[in-house]
Specification:
By secondary structure, the protein is α/β, with parallel strands linked by helices. The chain has a single domain, classed as 3-Layer(aba) Sandwich (Rossmann fold), CATH 3.40.50.720. The chain is built from 5 helices and 6 strands. Strands 3-2-1-4-5-6 form a 6-stranded parallel beta sheet, sandwiched between helices. The radius of gyration is 16 Å and the shape is globular.
Length: 143
């Protein structure tokens, strides 16, 4: 995501380890953040400084996405641990609600192409970790 001067209205789907860190930091940076998760206990992961909104619900259901005021969103981040959920939320945000910037967590690198076909930016923790390990091994193996 590019650095912007004004604050963003962002929706974060999934409040697990990754989602809660992103939500907490984005909120602390002055952005307007709405987090949606279907597990109430997930909101316990947010920092005490989080000033955004929390919505308990299933983000794959349109009614819950509408609660987030998704049509106003500058960016939607689909950060659940499930690629199917992230794909569904991302495509609905992009195609149905017209959100311009949609970023999805993709756990299985084999799924990246389908997201990209729908103009969804992907972040793959699996690919990032593998790449980092390979870089470390390559650097460590050189004499």
């Amino acid at each position: 995501m590019k650095k912007r001067a004004e604050s963003l209205y962002m929706i974060i789907v999934g409040c697990g380890r990754i989602g809660s860190i992103v939500a907490s930091q984005m909120s602390a940076s002055g952005n307007n953040v709405v987090v949606i998760d279907n597990r109430e206990v997930a909101f316990d992961n947010l920092s005490e400084e989080f000033t955004g909104f929390k919505i308990l619900g299933d983000a794959t259901e349109i009614v819950h996405l509408k609660e987030t005021k998704i049509e106003r969103a500058d960016v939607v981040l689909a950060l659940t641990g499930d690629d199917n959920t992230n794909f569904m939320v991302s495509t609905v945000a992009k195609q149905y609600f017209g959100v311009k910037e949609v970023i999805a967590r993709v756990n299985d690198p084999d799924n990246e192409d389908i997201f990209k076909e729908f103009d969804i930016e992907v972040i793959s923790p699996t690919a990032l970790v593998a790449e980092k390990i390979i870089q470390r091994v390559d650097v460590g193996g050189q004499s």
